[in-house]
Design goal:
By secondary structure, the chain is of the alpha/beta class. The chain folds into 2 domains: 3-154 and 330-340, Glycogen Phosphorylase B (Rossmann fold, 3-Layer(aba) Sandwich); 171-326, Rossmann fold, CATH 3.40.50.2000. It has 13 helices and 12 strands. Helix 2 runs parallel beside helix 3 (76-88) and helix 9 packs across helix 12 (309-326). The model has no long low-confidence stretch (mean pLDDT 90). This is Beta-1,6-galactofuranosyltransferase. Pfam families: Gtf3_C (PF26337), Gtf3_N (PF26334). Residues 172-338 form the Glucosyltransferase 3-like C-terminal domain. Residues 76-144 form the Glucosyltransferase 3-like N-terminal domain.
Length: 342
């Protein structure tokens, strides 16, 4: 049986998760014998050749093959042609969920949500990001068996020095999309001089402007260059405009179901993570003792100042174990090995 991996052909200049995750997945699958088939991220008006080109590439897939499809927030047309062609070829379709439309977009209609979810029932398996995402699918009438990544891989040949010389561990790093909808919480942070903490912020977007005291904008760079350039003692895995998880904020609730790529980015940079108690990563962090779990960002000064150097270094040692796996593609490889047993 031939094996294929379908995904976008991304360049190496994207910020943070923007294009690194699908590129890494394709590289990992290629090493395991999967043949890449590239499709466009979306279709630009008046450029019908993009659709035709994708259709032509997909037609080359051999019948009854095993096909992993990196299922992003593609336009419906792109997803439609993938499932249409693969179904006609009687292929084993295995979506790897980079995103689920209804989770990211709260404005999506009930009918659109049902269509997006229903399509997944044509799959052989579904590669989900974590158990909470798998449960969400089941609650929405997806009956296909799921396999969980738990952590998104972040390929990197660089590594951080496991030994740290500083004695204070009070710098919190936040890297990612700095749109106000995704990182608006940064503008609500209140830090006093005697809190003894500081925030370093990286990325692009309007959220980088007019930041509060002790929240410093440090620039942006490609995800490929984060090791050695991303500075901080802790990596903050947060989303939305609220300092605490807000059920009315879809951006905030989004992290309750996904394994954020920034979690892996912080890991390869040697930073223990900070996640919310309701997040999909909370249990993983607790079990692996690789960071702290909070209800509200306002808790951080007290919590961080109470953590001893010895405890911090244990957190760091544990996050580096996760980084070792993520930087080599081990989490995805484990899933591919499971699929290969069939």
């Amino acid at each position: 049986m031939k094996k294929y991996i379908i995904g976008p052909n991304m360049k190496k200049d994207g910020l943070f998760a923007g294009n690194k995750f699908p590129r890494d997945i394709i590289d990992i699958c290629r090493k395991k014998g999967y043949i890449p088939v590239y499709i466009h991220e979306g279709y630009i008006k008046k450029r019908a050749w993009e659709f035709i080109e994708d259709y032509y590439h997909l037609l080359k897939i051999s019948p009854r093959s095993q096909v992993i499809y990196i299922d992003r927030v593609h336009p419906n047309l792109a997803r439609k042609i993938v499932f249409f062609i693969l179904k006609n070829k009687k292929a084993d379709i295995i979506p790897l969920l980079e995103d689920i439309d209804p989770l990211r977009d709260s404005t999506i209609s009930k009918r659109q949500k049902e269509k997006a979810i229903k399509k997944l029932n044509n799959s052989k398996y579904i590669i989900s990001q974590n158990k909470k995402m798998s449960n969400y699918l089941k609650e929405n009438n997806v009956f296909v068996s799921t396999l969980e990544l738990n952590v998104l891989d972040f390929l990197s040949s660089k590594s951080v020095n496991p030994i740290v010389k500083n004695k204070k561990f009070n710098i919190i790093c936040y890297g990612g999309n700095l749109s106000l909808s995704q990182s608006g919480f940064l503008h609500n942070i209140k830090v006093r001089a005697d809190d003894n903490i500081r925030y370093y912020v990286y990325g692009k977007g309007e959220g980088k402007n007019n930041l509060p005291n002790f929240v410093d904008y440090k620039g942006s760079f490609s995800a490929e260059n984060c090791v050695g350039n991303l500075k901080g003692d802790w990596g903050l895995v947060w989303n939305g405009s609220s300092l605490k998880v807000n059920v009315k904020d879809s951006k905030s609730k989004y992290y309750d179901y996904v394994s954020p790529h920034k979690f892996s980015m912080y890991a390869v940079c040697g930073m223990p993570v900070i996640v919310s108690t309701t997040s999909a990563m909370a249990q993983f962090v607790i079990e692996n003792r690789c960071g702290i779990v909070i209800d509200n960002i306002e808790e951080l000064p007290k919590i961080i100042n109470s953590i001893s150097a010895e405890k911090y270094l244990q957190y760091r040692s544990n996050i580096l174990k996760i980084a070792c796996k993520a930087s080599k593609g081990a989490y995805t490889e484990e899933i591919l090995n499971e699929i290969g047993k069939e």
